[in-house]
Amino acid sequence: MTGVGLCLPQLGPHVTVEVVAEFARRADALGYSGLWVQDHFMYPLAPERGYGAKDVLPPDQYKSVWAPTETLAFVAGITENVALGTSILVAGNHWPVPLAQRLATIDQMSRGRLIVGLGVGWSPEEHVAAGTDVTERGRRMDDFVPTMLACWGPDPVSHESEFFSVPESCVNPKPFGGRRPKLLSGMWSAQGLERTARWFDAWNPAGLPVGKVQKMVASMDAKRPAGRHGLEVYYRSFVQAPNGPAPADGDNMSALVADAVAVREAGFADLCLEHNFWSGIRSPEDWLAIPDRFLPVLEAARG
């Protein structure tokens, strides 16, 4: 059965701990499949490159972003069933050994509900602030994933590669139940799709027709290592695109329901409902109304 996930209250000026808690509990109670966070930690005022198009600043919602792993750790303790996922963490914002420990801790706290989404990112300024080089982000990702996987494997852990060196050590906790979290790719380039086929369990496309996604996944599946199952798809659908116009019908419900039907018929694992950039969020109460408001999308995905 295809699930529908929601983005946790994380971006913008109306996020409070009370909003996060009530939103998460309500989504869990209603049967949503996942709660998702993303990863930015600063808003450059004069960025070197535009967001999505030349000379366009990132959406205003990015001026305040709650930290993703800390937010998921909090939500892990107040929910029971819903998956907790990153869509996505920017590898250049992190170092794989401490990130592996933080993620394994969340997986333990949630008793195995974590999904780890990773991508290479786009902001030169964030990479500089994190102490990484944006021009090396692809090659660094090629080292990042196996380093993190090594940390989740048996102790003692040791790893040597171009970017990372882990002297023989114990790295704990390990993920819950003796198996690693599902890895979700947020990469799009030709090289990124190659990495997705090689290392990841699922793909997180957005803004593409369902039919095109199916063809791209079939191409990646043909390149999978022997013995690996086909890639699952967590399809991202926008209530309102970043920096885009407000939906003519207020909440884009008809298009989202149509996406849910198409995703279900395609056999995708999940529809990730992206509402962070929706101009309809003007207050904490608007955040809290989202789980009930978008129930028609959940029902359409269930069929």
Notes on the structure:
It is a single chain. Strands 1-2-3-5-8-9-10-11 form an eight-stranded parallel beta barrel, surrounded by six helices. The chain has a two-stranded antiparallel ribbon with strand order 6-7. The protein has a single domain, classed as Alpha-Beta Barrel (TIM Barrel). It has ten helices and eleven strands. The chain is of the alpha/beta class.
Name the descriptors:
single chain, 303 residues, alpha/beta, TIM Barrel, eight-stranded parallel beta barrel, two-stranded antiparallel ribbon, 10 helices, globular, alkanesulfonate monooxygenase activity
- The residue fraction in helices comes out at 25-40%
Rg, rounded, reads 19 Å
Largest β sheet strand count, sense and barrel closure: 8 strands, parallel, barrel
- Strand % is 15-25%
| Class computed from helices, strands and strand pairing | alpha/beta
Number of strands: 11
User: What CATH first level would be assigned?
Assistant: Alpha Beta
Distance between the termini: 9 Å
Number of domains: 1
Low-confidence stretches: none
Order of helices and strands: EHEHEEHEHHEEEHEHEHEHH
Give the CATH H-level superfamily. Answer: Luciferase-like domain
Number of helices: 10
Physical arrangement of strands within the biggest beta sheet: 1-2-3-5-8-9-10-11
At CATH level 3, the topology is TIM Barrel
Short recap of the structure:
Keywords: Flavoprotein, FMN, Monooxygenase, Oxidoreductase. With 303 residues, the chain is an alpha/beta fold.
